[in-house]
Amino acid sequence: MPPISDYLFLSFALLLIGVAGVAMRRSLIIKLFSIALILNAAGINLMAFARLFADANGETFAAFTIAIVVAQIAVALAIIAAVFTRWLNVSSAPAKHPETGTIAS
Amino acid sequence: MIAFADMLTPAFDTVRNFMHAEGAAFLPELELLLFAFGILAMDFWISHKEKYWSPALALAGVVFSGLTLWMLRARIAAGAEFTAIHETIIVDTYFLFFSALLLAAAAMIILLSVNEVAIPLSHKARYYALLLFACAAMMFAVSAVDLLAMFLALEVAALSCFFLAALPGISRRPASSSVHWMLSSLFGSAILIYGFSLLYGLSGSTNIGKIASALARRHNVAKVIALSKQPGAHGAQMYQLLQSRLPEALHWHPFLLETLPTAAFLLVFFGFLAKIKAAAVHHVNENSSSASPLTPVVFLSGAVVTTTIATLLRLTLTIFADAHDIWWRVTAAVAVAFITTGVVASLRQETFARILAYASLAQVGYLLLALVAGDETALTAMAFYLFSYVFVVTGAFAILLAVRNKSGAGVQLASLNGLRGGSPVAAALLIIFVIALAGFPPTGIFFARYSLFQSLLHNNHRYTAWFAAFAALPLAWSYLRIAVQAWRRDPDPEAEIPAASFGAPEAVVLGVCAFVSLAAGLYSDPFLRMARYAFGQ
């Protein structure tokens, strides 16, 4: 097994990219994908540690994490789709309605 | 028939024995879930005229769950706290106190929702079921002593709240504000799970007690690892010692072992704070004329903040208890930032709901000060503060709801102008709640803050204490603006005077909230005893 620090550096890099994506990008889809990157970084950690300790708890933790977060992301995507349907825009900045010109709250 | 009953008897006995033993630990949550499923099932065959059964069933679920908590209290008093489901949840006085508070919040929201016009009648059953699902998940989160159970419970609660307050159908809240809230909450969850993964890696366990003991011995392990990497016979001896006793430690660098606990604390702490902030201010983007229901907002402002603070506190006091000298600085900085942001932002708002939302950030900052002081007095004061806050903020929102239901007024501050003339009782109650939120004597929040300041001074955090004391003044003014608007009358005689209407459920909630707001200050002894009980005193 490669040193545990290798896994940690990889996951830390993914964490930083994810945080930067959430902080700097305006597109809601990219923000959501950035959050998914952070979750994957945590998943890498959990799987690496589970292998290190030869312990099924870490793998169970990772599996449950993926399941519950997929459910949440599905709900988030549904609402983003609702935003797009109404405003034809998925930016986190206030959007104007294409016909009425009103600002999305 | 008799043979069939004989076949079922052992199964019933097994279930009964289980529920008397380990199953009792999650019986309060199980009852809430059963009632939630019952509401959903019943919704299929009852007509629109019979929809009043949904809140009645939801309330019955909360009452049953509360009675079970009371029975568990007797069991804890007789013996000791006990764990269940492979030591993933615990029933202790801490769980009982916060679960009772969550049930009280849920009961008040159910009563306030009975006449809430903004929730479509066709969706009321789903709404009550989601409330019970969220409450059960929050109770699980408070009782969890395992990272996996805690994370799952928090996320199931968050998911229920997303449906409750964000999805079209139940809520008519603008989708863009919902998506901001969901993304903030998801971001908090992602940061939290990353911190949890580090804690698991440092200990090899997801049980918070085992993590605490592993973190306590990490300095010694780091020293042995450093020695094992040295050349010579001594280094080889240490290497062999590690290989035989703690083989996984050979994969670690001493530097990582020393620094990762701090990183894990920061990630867990900021993950929780992101979730609190998302829940507290999730509705601030809304248009004042929005017809979205207010009751989920009240639930999120009270119950979600309570759950997150309670869970954070359990983790901090168990896992990071030894490192208080390190993390009190981070906590103090965050508390000061929350108080400053809350005060500055709430002073700039012209909307009742937004003032309450931003000022709640400042209230969270005051609650975090208990972690800075870190002694028993401060923790008791925090529990007392949280208890008072849940009732007071629910009462304040209940008045807003009553005004909106009667006169259709928006949540603009100016729309409360002259409430004293339209509904003197509503104006008087609103002033009581506003004074309590502002932290004036004789209210519970005043005494809680006073105890916090005393505890901070006693523990040599005098600058933080003085800052918090001075920041209470502008915070009080931001709340008092609401009372001023409700009290004074517009000089224009043609101006519309707002009025409020209370049904019996709202009157009960307002009566309870007003009683707790004042009684917690005028006769605080029973409430303080309850707060002390949470910490086993």
Account of the 3D structure:
The complex is a heterodimer of chains A (105) and B (537). Chain A has 105 residues and is an all-alpha fold. Helix content of chain A is 75%, strand content 0%. In chain A, helix 1 runs antiparallel to helix 2 and helix 2 packs antiparallel against helix 3. Chain A is flat, with a radius of gyration of 18 Å. The relative contact order of chain A is 0.12. Classes of the chains: A mainly alpha (105), B mainly alpha (537). At the A-B interface, helix 1, helix 2 and helix 3 of A face helix 6 and helix 7 of B.
Terminal residue distance of chain B: 54 Å
The chain-level structural class of chain B is mainly alpha
Compute the gyration radius of chain B: what is it?
25 Å
Strand content of chain B: under 5%
Residues in helices of chain A, as a percent range:
over 70%
Strand content of chain A: under 5%
Main beta sheet of chain B: strand number and arrangement?
A: 2 strands, antiparallel
Helix coverage percent of chain B: over 70%
Task: State Rg of chain A.
Answer: 18 Å
Write a concise synopsis of the structure shown.
With 105 residues, chain A is an all-alpha fold.
Strand and helix map with partners:
The complex is a heterodimer of chains A (105) and B (537).
Chain A: H1 4-24, H2 28-53, H3 56-87
Helix pairs in contact in A: 1-2, 2-3
Chain B: H1 2-20, H2 27-42, H3 53-78, E1 82-84, E2 89-91, H4 93-113, H5 124-143, H6 147-165, H7 175-203, H8 208-216, H9 218-228, H10 233-245, H11 254-280, H12 295-318, H13 324-347, H14 352-373, H15 376-407, H16 419-422, H17 424-438, H18 444-458, H19 462-487, H20 504-522, H21 525-534
Helix pairs in contact in B: 2-3, 2-5, 3-4, 3-5, 4-5, 4-12, 4-15, 4-21, 5-6, 5-12, 6-7, 6-12, 7-8, 7-11, 9-10, 9-11, 11-12, 12-14, 12-15, 13-14, 13-19, 14-15, 14-18, 14-19, 15-17, 15-18, 15-20, 15-21, 17-19, 17-20, 18-19, 18-20
